[in-house]
Amino acid sequence: MALMALAGAARGSTPSSTLYPFPGYDLGLVRAKTRAEAAPPGADLAQAWRLYAQIQGTWMPGAPKPKPEAVAALDQLRAKLEAMPVPAWFAAALDPGHTVQTGLADRIGDEVFVQQRATPEYQALKALALVYLTGHELDRRGAAELAGRYLVALTTTHPWDWEVHGLYARFLVDAQHNDPAWEEAKLSVFLNPEPSLEQLKQFAFVGGIAAREQWPEIKEAIRQAATDSRTAELAIQQADDLFAGSTSVNVVQPRP
How far is CA 144 from CA 90, 116, 250, in A? Predict the structure, then answer.
C-alpha cells in the first residue's frame, strides 16, 4: 500500500534512508500526526491484544496448546464485537470493488484527521481484526480471509495506525506476499512515534525475508527510525543473524 504524499513544506529532520516511505518530509511532523490520531485502547481492544499475545504461535509444532479459558474468552469477545453494527464507512471499505486514495491528514485537526481518529468505533473494529488474527493462529477455517479483509480496510481508512501496518506486514509474510509485507513494515516502523526493540526487530525480520540483500540499508533505516541509538544498535545486533550468509529464514504457515 502506498500513501499519498503529505501536503505542506518539509522541514527539520528528514530521514535520508532509501527505505523511508515519506521522502522529503520531516519525520517528527509525520509522527506528531500519528501520535495525535491515536488513543489509549478501550477494554475490548486491550483484551484482544492480550488474547492475541497468549495464543500467538500456539499452532506451531511442539508449542503448548492455548488455555481453554483463553479460547473461551476469544469466542465471547468475537460474539460481542460481531454483534455491533458495522459503520457505513467500514462496510464500504470491505467491499472488494471499493477503491480509495489513502493519505495521512495534512494538518492535525483538519477534516481527514477527524475522520481518521481512533474512536471507540474504530477500536472495536481493530479489536475484531485482532480476534480474527488470533483465530487464524488457532487454524480456524475462514479466519485468515476475515483477518486479511479487515486489515486491508483498516490500513486504507486509518493509514496512520502503525500497529495495524505491523500486523498486516506479519500476516502478509505468513501468506508469502513478501513485497507488500515489506512496504507495510516500512510504514509501521516510521509511523510509530517510539518503536520498541521488538518492533525494530520485527522490521528487520520482515526485511530478512523480503529484502535480505538490503541489510546495509535496513540497518541505516533502523538507526533513523529509532528514538535512541542504544535501542537501534541492540536491534541491529540481535537481527544480524537473519542476514548472515549461512542463515536462512523459513516461515511455517498455519493451515488455511
Answer: 18, 25, 20
pTM: 0.90
Query: Are 136 and 55 in contact, with CB atoms under 8 Å apart?
Result: no
Using alpha carbons only, how large is the chain's radius of gyration in Å?
18
At 13 the pLDDT is 87
Q: Which helix (H) or strand (E) holds 113?
A: helix 111-115
Which of the four pLDDT bands, split at 50, 70 and 90, describes residue 4? Answer: very low
Which residue from 53, 37, 34, 35 is spatially nearest to 45, judged by alpha carbons? 53
Cα–Cα distance for residue pair 97/45, rounded to 1 Å: 28
**Of 121, 167, 123, the residue nearest 144 (C-alpha):** 167
**CA-to-CA distance for 192 and 153, rounded, in angstroms?**
19
Cell 483465530 appears where?
A: 135
Q: What are phi and psi of 43, to 5 degrees?
A: -60, -45
Other residues' Cβ atoms within 10 Å of the Cβ of residue 134: 27
Cα gap 226→193, rounded to integer Å:
9
> Within its chain, how far is the Cα of 157 from the centroid?
14
Q: For residue 96, what pLDDT is reported?
A: 82
Mean pLDDT of all residues in 90-105: 84
Read off the C-alpha cell for 193.
Answer: 512515534
Q: Mean pLDDT, to the nearest integer, of 69-74?
A: 98
- The answer to whether the beta carbons of residues 153 and 94 sit under 8 Å apart is yes
Amino acid letter for position 248: S
Which burial class, exposed, middle or buried, applies to 99 when counting CB atoms under 10 A from its CB (0-12, 13-18, 19+)?
Answer: exposed
Cell of 150: 479487515
Question: 32-44: per-residue pLDDT in tens?
Answer: 999 999 999 999 9
